[in-house]
Amino acid sequence: MTETNKQELTPEQQEQNKNQELANQQQLENLASVHTNGFTELLKYFGISLAISTYQAGKLILAREEDGVTNTHFRQFNKPMGMVASADRLTLGTAAQIWDFRNVPTAAHRISPVKKHDACYLMRDVKTTGDIDIHEMAWVDEELWFINTRFSCLCTFKPGFSFNPRWRPPFITEYDMRDRCHLNGLAIRDGKPRYITALGETDTEGGWRKNKAAGGILMDIESNEFILRGLSMPHSPRWHNNKLWFLESGRGTLNYVDPVTGENIVHAELPGFTRGLDFIGQYAVIGLSQVRETAVFAGLPLTQTQPVRHSGVWIVDLKDGEIKAFLKFEKGVQEIFAVSVLPWKFPDVINDDLNLLGSTYVLTDEVLNNTCQPDKNWSTAEIHFEEGNRLFNDGKVKEAIEKYKQCLEMMDNYVPARYNYGVALGNLDRHEEAIIELEKVLKEDIGHAEAINSIGFSHSKLGNTEKAREYFERAIQIRPNYEQAKSNLKALNEKVNE
User: Fold this and answer.
1) Distance in angstroms (rounded) separating the CA atoms of residues 434 and 438
2) Which residues contact 74 (CB under 8 A, 6 or more apart)?
3) What local confidence, expressed as pLDDT, does residue 17 receive?
């Protein structure tokens, strides 16, 4: 497998890289969390990590054990919400699309730091649904079922269409994009969609809002019967260990339906708006949100009884309802939508690394068995070039030079590698050598403005003022809007006039 990046290391691109690194650092600084020791110990004991979606912060967060603490690593998405994950797949609903990721183990070994990751979920497919306020979802065999909250229905896909409604509550008389009942939760039982939650038994535009504090429902979609009514903003129904669990979010509780009496039993009370539920061993993994002071959340039992509310992930013992551990976000994240257990210690999710996505192939066994496997020592000029770029961007200029030289030994007329080689030499103040290599670039491409500018820069460093001016002016003549060359020429003239 080969990663390719044909962009040259121009000064402008180096500046863009620095700006991106700064932006990433600022995003990291905007996310702050604390956790109990027990939280990290649980991740380590079970050999798991957690995927956490937060639409308010626009992030998919991975909580992973690293060196005895919990590492929170994130990827940016546009309003990530519903999610379903397994060892080999992660599917995520966003503002208007559903992203499907597949775990590609061979790609995990190519993520920096090398040999750290044990799973890599690579983006394989994206489907556009439009803004349906997508909520929970689940795979049934190879078919994705998802809650379409705006249109009050449970859907699958149909080729060429935004969605394919498969079920809607019996009290909903027609599809309406204005959210009549706030259908939100989905549970699978015996390999079929079976239970849903909604915030109201209403059939008018936004009708659920009038009695949101006590109008919620839990339904069996196989029989169209109500299991529970009068709930406070229920979410996240789950069939687990022969028991139907759900979150009564408006009260901040973990509940279950008594299998004998059918009663609503509160198993645990938590300090936040409960939404997002998964299980590991004897524990429930529950997402908590702070609850904003908005009309949607006003008047809930939780806001009237719990003055201090938290955002994060809480671990509750299914045996006695005791809180065993938590991960609490103190900055940057106020709401959690979904929480999923990943059976990997240190996974990553790749949604925007075009080099990795473009150079990783997932093939059927039939195709793979009929594909030539290169020798492990197989290499190409492109591989050395790409490795040189990576080393250069990591500040390892001497090592990068060796890779560029290896590339040029295999392909002497590889202009991007020759140019980058010259830039790297200049970076080490080896300007005479840099000029020699960059002049070779011009023999292949007489109009290579970046190489001409770089030659001028090296001449200026060597004190060859007139030569430097000649090359800067030549670069500007070829590319009149070349700001870097203009800046270099201006600096040269100012220095001469001092």
Assistant:
1) 6
2) 27, 31, 59, 60, 61, 62
3) 41
Collapse the DSSP code of 288 into the 3-class scheme (helix H, G, I; strand E, B; otherwise coil) and give the result: strand
418-450 pLDDT per residue, tens? 999 999 999 999 999 999 999 999 999 999 999
DSSP annotation of 115 reads T
pLDDT band for position 9 (cuts 50, 70, 90): very low
Helix (H, G, I), strand (E, B) or coil at 491: helix
Q: What is the DSSP string of 222-282?
A: TTTEEEEEEESSEEEEEEETTEEEEEEGGGTEEEEE-TTT--EEEEEE-SSEEEEEEEETT
Q: Say whether pLDDT at 25 is over 90.
A: no
Taking CA 326 as the corner, what is the angle to CA 216 and CA 254, rounded to the nearest 5 degrees? 25
H-state helical runs in 266-328: 301-305
Question: How far is the C-alpha of 61 from the C-alpha of 53, rounded, in Å?
Answer: 6
Sheet holding 338-342, edge to edge: 69-76, 59-66, 49-54, 338-342
* Tokens (6 digits) for 114: 């090398």
**Contact in structure between 46 and 63 (CB atoms under 8 Å):** no
- To the question of pTM greater than 0.85 for the whole model, the response is no
Strand 89-93 with 97-103, pairing: antiparallel
R_g of the chain computed on alpha carbons: 29
Determine the Cα–Cα distance for residues 321 and 339; give it in Å rounded to an integer.
19
Ordered domains of the chain (ranges, CATH): 31-361 (2.120.10.30), 376-497 (1.25.40.10)
Residues 58-73 as b/e (b if ≥16 CB within 10 A, e otherwise) read bbbbbbbbbeeebebb
Q: What is the mean pLDDT of residues 158-163?
A: 97
pLDDT at 305: 86
More confident: 350 or 354? 350
Nearest to 100 by CA among 137, 50, 155, 56: 137
Task: Check pLDDT > 70 for residue 168.
Answer: yes
Measured from the Cβ of residue 180, the count of other Cβ atoms closer than 10 Å reads: 27
